Amino acid sequence: MTDRPNILVICGKNKRRSRTAEYIFKNDDRFNIRSAGLSPKSDHKLSENDLNWAGLILVMENEHRAKIRQLYRHMQLPVIEILNIADEYEYLDKELIQILNDKINDIIKKIYNI
């Protein structure tokens, strides 16, 4: 198999939604995954290194994509897909895991056919 795609999942503070996504997909053989947050209070704050690493960015909300495009307008950014998952779940919430599984698997299939 060729190199696995690098997928970066981003939410506000990298405490619940994106961290859950990274946790549930971290051992997936189809792709590499990292998570980051946009807030200065993030567990892992988004950096240019993260963006350079990523082949695909998944954000939770429209505002996240707009903020990334504004903050990093000097960079050539990869495709940014919006998952539309509200900030109303706790880390590893069962419903959040189901939603992330469904949405991320659909996007991976659509973009990479894997």
How many domains in all? 1
How much helical structure, as a percent, in the residues?
A: 25-40%
Secondary-structure-derived class? alpha/beta
What is the averaged pLDDT score? 97
Question: Order of strands in the sheet with the most strands?
Answer: 2-1-3-4
How big is the Rg? 13 Å
Termini separation comes to 11 Å
Largest sheet: 4 strands, parallel
Beta content = 15-25%
The CATH class is identified as Alpha Beta
Q: Within the CATH hierarchy, at the fold level, what is the topology?
A: Rossmann fold
Please report the total strand number as a whole number: 4
Principal-axes shape call: globular
**Do you know the CATH architecture?**
3-Layer(aba) Sandwich
Structure overview:
By secondary structure, the chain is an alpha/beta fold. It has a single domain (6-90), classed as Rossmann fold. 39% of the residues lie in helices and 18% in strands. The chain is built from four helices and four strands, in the order βαβαβαβα. It has helices at residues 17-25, 48-53, 62-71, 94-112, and strands spanning 6-11, 32-37, 56-59, 79-82. Strands 2-1-3-4 form a four-stranded parallel beta sheet. Helix 3 links the parallel strand 3 and strand 4. Helix 1 crosses helix 4. It is globular and about 35 Å long.
